[in-house]
Amino acid sequence: MRSTGILAASALVLAGFASGTVLNHARATPVATTTTIPLERPQTNWKVATASSRGVMVDYRMIDLAGVQFRTIRLRARTTILRWHVGYLDPPTHAGEIPADAGSSINWPNEGLAGVVAVFNGGFKVAATAGGSMVDGVTLSPLIRGDMTLAISAAGHWKMGLWEPDFPGPTFHAIAYRQNLGPLIANAKVTSIARSTDPLIWGSPLHNRPLEPRSALGIDAHGNLVYVATMTGVLPSQIASALLAAGAVEGMELDINPFWPIVGASFHVLHSPGIFPVQIPYSEHNPTIYSTGWERDFFVAVAEPGNWNCSWTSTGVGRLTGVAQPQPLHKVCAVGPSAVAATTSTAG
To answer: What whole-number distance in Å separates Cα of residue 168 and Cα of residue 154?
Structure first.
């Protein structure tokens, strides 16, 4: 299950026999069935970074708001999945507490098996008390009620919302949560708190100057995940407006200040360390640092299988015991009608 907006229903096309009489048969031959599934198609004003037989996986653009350029990438909800990683310094952990699938570098034997298509930075340090986190059954810092939360399921699906006892729902099977402050976007509008005259509620900027490089994450009406960032100094309301311009209907801030916003999208599915040409202009870091190990948390997007009948998933978390439950990816394929791509788009 993904966020609101995904077209989950597929049209069923039945290929039957020609009309006529079946003689001397106790039962008719089974009828073949084919499921017609919409492709993820390119969209005007977006450039395709990576695609598969399912269609677009990652696309990107620059958004100009009053002369400020915001790098934007979009992960299509039906063709990519997401994983969250802990940095080697933050969130703080004990030796051996976090398995390799969620460690401080891309886990190439695991995520490379599916194929990496994008990476991007996480949120504030634990010391900033901007929200909690959990991964692989280990709570790294307590989750805070009312904070904006990105949940990731065992199947790599995502959901965003305010942390409440019923979020993200009983059937979501989350293996990771990452919180970071309150909502920038709610119900497809910039929130009043994002327009607050006290920008310090959105993080501690360098030298108390509220105009800082910022990054943010949102979900659009089709369930796609949208990341925006700029190295130009902006207010919280400006990064929120960039999310809105990218189509987000809900959104949250990620990390700020010049050293931390980092994004990379590849032009090919990467099964081993490679380059990420789509980056934030003037970023202080190349996103390849996520291949070798980084001090802060980050996200990795990987490709779903090209076959619509198959998907990647992991074991899931049984209980929050404080002991890590590794989540290696494995492919599962449905038994049933074969899938055929149609020519309609779900990008809007």
So the answer is: 13
Give yes or no for a contact between 175 and 156, defined as CB atoms under 8 angstroms apart: no
Residue 348: pLDDT band with limits 50, 70, 90: low
Contact criterion met (CB below 8 Å) for 71 and 281: yes
pLDDT tens-digit readout, 68-96: 999 999 999 999 999 999 999 999 998 88
For residue 315, give both structure tokens: 């074991």
Domain boundaries, given as residue ranges, for the chain: 45-333
> Computed over its alpha carbons, how large is the radius of gyration of the chain?
21
Find the DSSP H helices in the chain: 108-114, 236-245, 289-292
Would you say 282 and 124 are in contact if contact means Cβ atoms under 8 Å apart? Answer: no
Tokens standing for 8? 């989950």
Q: What are phi and psi of 125, to 5 degrees?
A: -65, 155
Is the Cβ–Cβ distance between 70 and 228 less than 8 Å? Answer: yes
Tell me the H-state helices in 189-306.
236-245, 289-292
Cα within 13 Å of Cα(40), Cβ side: 29
Closest to 261 in 3D by CA, of 77, 69, 79:
69
- How much is the pLDDT for 250? 98
Comparing CA positions, the residue from 81, 51, 261, 260 lying closest to residue 153 is: 81
pLDDT at 227: 99
- Is the overall model pTM greater than 0.90, yes or no? no
- Please count the other Cβ atoms lying within 10 Å of the Cβ belonging to residue 121: 25
Distance between CA atoms of 285 and 257, rounded to whole angstroms?
13
> Token digits for 347?
């990008």
